[in-house]
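Input (Histidine kinase/HSP90-like ATPase domain-containing protein):
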Amino acid sequence: MAVPLRQKASDEPERNRNTGVALRWHAHWNSGAISAAEARAAVGSFLDRVRATGHIIVPPRVAQDAQLVVSELITNVIRHAPGACGMGLEVWPDAGLVQISVWDTSPRPPRPRPPDGRRVGGHGLEIVRAVSHALTVTDRAHGKQITAQLLLSPAPPAE
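Output:
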């Protein structure tokens, strides 16, 4: 069951000019994550509300990649770290980034596997790395947090 950690009554993304974060949404679940499908829907809804502000352009490809990243990270939490967990979404227009953070109570860091086209499953972190601009794993007092950053616009081609 989803228990929002911080969500405005209007269900609008939060503005926070003091930290440079334009828009954010966070959720916390006390006994396991929502399904990957519900997480994808939450990301889609959040990015639709970001677009509705009229200030930030979120290209469809970035929204699709964000939903894919959340799906893979939440699936890993469900499979490998039952218990309390959470998800945070932030859009940083000045930096041109969408930031996705997923935390859980497992102290074990993710272990990427070498690419293997014959293996069924186990490609989630590889997929997240492929579509992300940056990927970090941070230790928390009780577990870890994985943060993926996606660029709002593609990087210019190298000359």
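Helices lie at 36-52, 60-80, 124-131.
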